[in-house]
UniProtKB/TrEMBL annotation:
<dbReference type="InterPro" id="IPR003599">
    <property type="entry name" value="Ig_sub"/>
</dbReference>
<dbReference type="InterPro" id="IPR013783">
    <property type="entry name" value="Ig-like_fold"/>
</dbReference>
<keyword id="KW-1133">Transmembrane helix</keyword>
<dbReference type="InterPro" id="IPR013106">
    <property type="entry name" value="Ig_V-set"/>
</dbReference>
<feature type="domain" description="Ig-like">
    <location>
        <begin position="37"/>
        <end position="123"/>
    </location>
</feature>
<keyword id="KW-1015">Disulfide bond</keyword>
<keyword id="KW-0472">Membrane</keyword>
<keyword id="KW-0732">Signal</keyword>
<feature type="domain" description="Ig-like">
    <location>
        <begin position="425"/>
        <end position="559"/>
    </location>
</feature>
<dbReference type="InterPro" id="IPR051102">
    <property type="entry name" value="IgSF_V-set/TM_domain"/>
</dbReference>
<keyword id="KW-0812">Transmembrane</keyword>
<dbReference type="InterPro" id="IPR007110">
    <property type="entry name" value="Ig-like_dom"/>
</dbReference>
<dbReference type="InterPro" id="IPR036179">
    <property type="entry name" value="Ig-like_dom_sf"/>
</dbReference>
<keyword id="KW-0393">Immunoglobulin domain</keyword>
<feature type="domain" description="Ig-like">
    <location>
        <begin position="297"/>
        <end position="420"/>
    </location>
</feature>
<protein>
    <submittedName>
        <fullName>Immunoglobulin superfamily member 8</fullName>
    </submittedName>
</protein>
<dbReference type="Pfam" id="PF07686">
    <property type="entry name" value="V-set"/>
</dbReference>
Amino acid sequence: CEYAIAGLGDFWLLGAGIVLSGAREVHLPPGPLYRIEGTSISIPCNVSEYEGPTLQKFEWFVYRPAAPDISIGMVSTKDPKFPYAIFGPRVQSGDVSIHRVRGDAVELRIKQLRTEDAGIYECYTPTTDSKYHGSYSGKTELRVLPDGLWVSAASPGTKPSLRGRGAASPPLQLTLTESQELELSCTALSESQQHTHLSVSFGVSAPEAPVGRQTLQEVIGVRRDFAVETDGRYGEQHRAQELSLAKLGDQRYRMVLGRIRPEDAGTYHCTAGEWIQDPDGTPSPGAHLSALSASFPASQLLVWASPPELRLRSGDALEFLCNASGLPSRTPHAAYTVAWEVGDGLLVAQLDTEGVVVLGESYANREVGKRHISLQKLAPAPGSYSLRIESAQPGDVGDYRCVVRAYVRLPGAELQEVASAKSEPLMVHMKSEAVVLGVQAWLATPSIYRGDTAEVLCNISVDSTQAVRVAVGWWAEQEEEPLVKMVASVSREGVAELSSRASGGAVSVDKVGLLCHRLRIHGVEPSDAGRYHCAVTAWVRYPDQSWYNAGAIKSRSVIVYPYALTMDTLFIPLIVGVSSALFVGITVLVSVTCCFMARLRKR
């Protein structure tokens, strides 16, 4: 057990008796004062209605019950040699001291009370008055009670062993995982014959921090007036009903902290306090004892995987084994996920919090199809998971990691990650069969005129030992379009996709040879002019019916430029001639009309 020494606050009350106007009066708190052996005390003393300097001198004496008529000098503000031999060592060590609060007020301080410190305490003030008038000392009684407070901490399933002050005990060790419930109990018992009240609180200090009040943070406590209090982040958990403190019977107190998180790791303490009410109604602290209760590590989540390296051929099965320890049980408040990632965190497959397998986007889409990938828990081995890819592809080469994440479910049903761990990387090597592609584009006729059908042919060559399907696309770079535009395409299944033209004309594609495809632009217009190229993608199908992109290539560009027709060259001069003739004719007609009208007016 660890111990803490509690002191008495500053209390200033008038002593019993009648204060005469203009007479010196020394004030002490009324007695008897009750304190527990081993605790501290501060007894205030002040003087009023005095003459002379404001800096008054004070001397403290004690009358022990064994010799009630003999005063024993303790400490003085006037003479450092004032203490009697019995108090000299304690004054030098600082256990007994006098502290000046102001010029006419001091405190007698005893850090650690002993049984023999019980008695009548007298505060004396040497006179500075012009005449002797009033009282020059005051007395109060201090009773030192034996330490009758016992406390012990225990975890569920263990029997508490009561210990008093000075009894050391190692902390109970509890190993928990995130989202589990921490339950600690504390038994506090007082054997005092006086009327006392108990206060009990639970606190925590960091795992590696030294045990002491400076490092102790209160989690929750019940005060001497039976009020349950907490603050900070523990206050929020208390309001959310995740933290509780209950009294079980006359002596036992139980703290329950639900859904623990890594920041809850540490050494927990149970602190009991015994309170005695002084005659003036002020509660004074008795013995405070701290018992080390429990400690647990922040996270026990560990992940490792095997084998460390795989060497495969294209189409072989890829299989890894992942082992995880420290996983929380799947409960309404806790969950976890197991995932496999490759490269820079690209998801392969994941077993989500509901136990459903989800494939990464790169492994289940329209282009590649749905690959045969399984991620399953191996029974009966706890925490063992198997990843299997039925037909490995060259794109599966890389570093694989098994990643495990633990979550707690917040009151709003939101999942919050509280811990994660990943395995060392596992390397996959593959000896793939190369696919060599070649492509060439050309125009069927070198000269194209407006209204003709422009034909862009795409001749493909494939060198591979595997069955390969190709997808072909034709692209155009035009001045009116800032980006390269797809004109038409043929998928690996032979399905054509055609885009619209600015002129509204038709576009068609067909296959004119084993590996030769043709694009036809019907009724070509000047808006169709541009640089055209074809792009080819090779696809290999695997036994699991998935597709692998084995390579892509594009051809050099060919220029499509529709020339003007002969009629187009004659049509322009014709329009110019007709326009000129009409202009001359209209001019002559207007002039003749004007002259005729002028002569008609003169007549």
